[in-house]
């Protein structure tokens, strides 16, 4: 792995641990000589992780659609900033630039981004590691929902391993480094095996 895409809230959230762990993740990326790829904002947890990377003299690569420049404050100190036309182009470029994905706490946008890369992994578009940084139990309900969907027959049991969930950035990155994609299975239960 050379570059990790981090999806994160454009707000800092109410728990100080969210900001602290975002900064810890940024420093850990630099310690491991991993570049950050992210949404390009200077706000919220997005900005916190990027600022931590840059303060530790690492590389932070932003990807932001032109239309968001008014709503989000673009980070002007990045190593590289890619301006794209749409959110779809943003996500595609972030995928192309990255060797793995991590979601910090966030809202609808963060959920949508991480679930898209999980879906892409499930159907074989990529085989990159996907991690949830479970700060203060933030992603515990989501992992319970994934387990619920597995038990209900909507996610093949072996594909639960598509997502790595850890509360410590170093442990998460270790597990992502050692990641082996689950054996490909037929995700469609009504098709012949």
Automatic annotation (TrEMBL):
GO BP, one annotated term: cytokinin biosynthetic process
Top class in the EC scheme: hydrolase
Example of a GO cellular component annotation carried by this entry: cytosol
A molecular function (GO) term: hydrolase activity, hydrolyzing N-glycosyl compounds
A Pfam family matched in the record: Lysine_decarbox
UniProt family annotation: Belongs to the LOG family.
NCBIfam families membership: Rossman fold protein, TIGR00730 family (TIGR00730)
Record-given protein name: Cytokinin riboside 5'-monophosphate phosphoribohydrolase
Source organism (scientific name): Brevibacillus reuszeri
Classification of source organism: Bacteria, Bacillati, Bacillota, Bacilli, Bacillales
